[in-house]
Write a structure and sequence with these properties.
By secondary structure, this protein is of the alpha/beta class. It has ten helices and twelve strands. A six-stranded parallel beta sheet has the order 2-1-3-4-5-9, with helices on both faces. Strands 6, 8, 10 and 12 form a four-stranded mixed beta sheet that branches. A two-stranded parallel sheet has the order 7-11.
Length: about 325
């Protein structure tokens, strides 16, 4: 399939087009905001940004008219409805419908209005629950998904396939990147529905604030996880826009594994919590290991730059300035 018509095009000249109009969809989120920072740092001067109230990406005619009027040259699609296990279980219809609508509207309008290249961003949850570790791109659609977030995963898989379909049928340069677990500025630190890393950071901070003697964390701390700072993902996105025009989606990971225990110790140190860390082994651990095989991206010449410790330090600074101070 990878050799189908239009599957492998020569990469364009993205980095030399600093004044080209670039539409970053989802520019206020964790990923989109990092991509905007990276593009601005790289000297791009013509970014098209729209909030949800300015442009509802689930509304086909609004998206169509936006593309017709603004005519972006490049599109990075980082807009999505996201959430944890609880949200996915409670609102499965929203997770599949909203994401399919956003993707279909943006990808189709981008093609019909002459966008030169589009990058679609997914998630590592597209892979089967029991995929081999580290997970290669070829594991896609080889087994059943994790049931708790299959609604979101199915939408993201459809996005990859849509990009591939338009590439084959229309020889259009649409590519996909699949990031691993992300963290950094603009992450969600909500007490109930945040991911493991911001949840740990918030709990250690609040324990330090209250001078608590201990923090109890679920499980044994033994599962291995991979984390990528969102600024590294943004760097990889710019790299892919400039250098990659292949048929297959590309994994974007750090390649560095840490146990949940090591992660908790690092967060504890960065936050400066001096109490005890207690593991509640009666609670479930989740998947023992989840690591993406990012050797394809490495072979293209990209490597991550932000260490976990430095990334945690920056993220905690952002949390103090943007979450803690705003509450006060």
């Amino acid at each position: 399939m990878a050799n189908a018509a239009g599957s492998d095009m020569k990469p364009g000249s993205f980095m030399s087009e600093k004044t080209a109009k670039i539409f970053v969809a989802g520019h206020r989120g964790l990923v989109g905001s990092a991509i905007v920072r990276k593009l601005e740092e790289s000297g791009f001067t013509n970014l098209l940004l729209r909030t949800h109230s300015e442009l509802d990406l689930t509304n086909q005619s609004d998206v169509e008219s936006f593309f017709s009027t603004e005519k972006p040259v490049y599109v990075i699609l980082a807009a999505a409805k996201v959430g944890g296990i609880h949200a996915n279980n409670t609102y499965p219809a929203d997770f599949i419908a909203v994401n399919l609508q956003i993707q279909t509207n943006v990808i189709h309008s981008a093609y019909t209005h002459g966008v030169k290249k589009l990058l679609f961003l997914g998630s590592s949850c597209i892979y089967p629950k029991f995929a081999p570790q580290p997970i290669p791109e070829s594991a896609l659609l080889t087994g059943p998904l994790e049931p708790t977030n299959e609604w979101y995963a199915i939408a993201k898989i459809a996005g990859i396939k849509m990009c591939q379909g338009y590439r084959i049928q229309h020889q259009w340069d649409a590519i996909s990147g699949m990031p691993t677990n992300l963290y950094g500025p603009n992450d969600n630190f909500h007490p109930e529905n945040s991911h493991v890393l911001p949840a740990l950071m918030r709990r250690f901070h609040e324990a330090k604030d209250k001078k608590a003697g201990e923090v109890v964390v679920w499980g044994s701390g033994s599962p291995l996880r991979e984390f990528l700072h969102v600024d590294d993902l943004a760097d990889a996105c710019v790299f892919l826009m400039d250098r990659y025009s292949g048929f297959e989606h590309v994994n974007v990971g750090s390649g560095v594994e840490v146990t949940i225990k090591e992660l908790a110790e690092l967060v504890k140190e960065v936050v400066g919590f001096e109490g005890k860390l207690v593991w509640d082994c009666s609670k479930p651990d989740g998947t023992p290991r989840k690591l993406m095989d990012s050797s394809k991206l490495a072979s293209l010449g990209w490597t991550p730059k932000v260490s976990v410790k430095e990334g945690l330090r920056q993220t905690y600074e952002w949390y103090l300035e943007n979450v803690v101070q705003k509450k006060q």
